[in-house]
Inverse folding.
């Protein structure tokens, strides 16, 4: 099952990349922006609760889909790019075992403990 889930996340990462290409962006744009969603970790400077909430907001695939829908509604390729980066980054994180955060500890995720 673990291989199946990782394959699914890898496919989602590839789809996010292809969407950026189909939206007319250069091949390197996606990779340049791919780690920007990690800026949502800034909330951990306040405390674990704020950090987890903000991190999860930036790593939630539903948020990425909502941004994509806005991009489609308003014909905004920039929104589509942002959505693809958010979605692709979340898929990459889950591929490597980094999930949505619980409020008790940064290393406690919905996929288990990071590093254990």
């Amino acid at each position: 099952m673990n291989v199946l889930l990782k394959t699914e996340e890898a496919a989602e990462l590839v789809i996010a990349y292809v969407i950026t290409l189909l939206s007319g962006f250069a091949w390197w744009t996606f990779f340049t922006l791919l780690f920007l969603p990690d800026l949502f970790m800034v909330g951990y400077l306040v405390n674990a609760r704020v950090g987890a909430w903000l991190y999860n907001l930036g790593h939630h695939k539903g948020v990425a889909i909502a941004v994509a829908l806005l991009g489609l509604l308003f014909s905004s390729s920039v929104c589509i790019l942002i959505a693809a980066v958010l979605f692709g980054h979340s898929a990459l994180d889950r591929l490597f075992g980094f999930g949505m955060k619980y409020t008790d500890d940064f290393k406690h995720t919905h996929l288990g403990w990071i590093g254990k």
